[in-house]
Design a protein that fits this description.
Layout (H helix, E strand, L loop, with lengths): L4 E10 L3 E2 L5 H17 L11 H6 L1 H6 L12 E4 L7 E2 L4 E9 L6 H14 L8 E10 L4 E6 L17 H6 L6 E10 L1 E3 L2 E3 L4 H20 L6 H12 L2 E10 L2 E3 L6 E3 L2 E9 L7 H10 L12 E4 L6 H7 L11
Antiparallel strand pairs: 1-5, 1-6, 2-4, 3-5, 6-7, 8-14, 8-15, 9-10, 11-14, 12-13
Length: about 325
Amino acid sequence: MDFPYLHLRFDLAARTPIKLGGYQAGERLRDALAGVMLQAVCPENPRRQKPTPEHAALCPVCWLLAADTDPRAVRRASAVVPPLPPPDLLQAGERFSFVITLFGEGLRYLPYFVLAVPEMGRQGVGPGRGKFNLQAVWALQPLLDWAFPLLQPGEHVVRVPDDFPTADIFALAAGLPPVSELQVHFLTPTRLVDEKRLVRAPDFAVFFRRMLSRIDDLARLHNQAGRRPPEDVERLHRLADGVRLVDVDTTWVDLFAPSGRTGRRTPMGGFVGRAVYRLPDGGELLPWLLLGQAAQAGKLAAKGSGVFELALPGRPGYWQRCFRMMQSEGSSSGY
């Protein structure tokens, strides 16, 4: 499956205390990012109203942030991953990083994000508008152990590689030892809804369905991919139905965020923690789980929800690697 994506990691230093609010961090970072981009790029700045189809078709920022005139029925071409674990408060001088993932056609707008983040630091984030300085920007592909420095400390020119690598998830999964039990760490609140019912436990079948649906929607909306054949969907769903939860240590986190569109508080709660699953036949599911780490799962992924990683024997965690890759350029087999 052709599913191009790229992680941009922004390495930062707090100039004043920054109230990220723990698991609220993703929402606060994305809100600050959206505000800066709308002010700087959008000629109409329709921050609190639904853009017209004509405007959304021409404005790159409205396309990135909404991609449609119905925000409830769309997968955005970008998603935020907050610092992990998400801190409540950063003190002046403290260093931290967060990630923006671009999917498919969203890669075209990489410069908008690189330009917007320093302005975020000047305007501030969260209550009290905590300020930061940009230190460096990295383009990352953790599945391939690939990192490219877009901007390094003291530099003022952004470098862009000639090509961004795409991981072959099937080849990567085939190179792993057979997995009969799989541990999944849910790093930010994962909010799953099944047939309009909020799911408060890490049920694998629901989790996998929501993750696969997100991957397919992103590929279709932002990479001109066709719909997955129904028989393929049914086969993967049947395999997911056979996975059993054998150990769980998760906690439900209640979160609410203000909505500029509706004027009401939007529920963002979900479960965090660890779950262990027994996979009777994980060979076909594992490639999609590897890819799902990049895509995230469930509701409100664009605001930092649904970040998870697999615990694979002898391998660094996906997001652990993403936040620690700082020196490597070029590629080698990370998985």
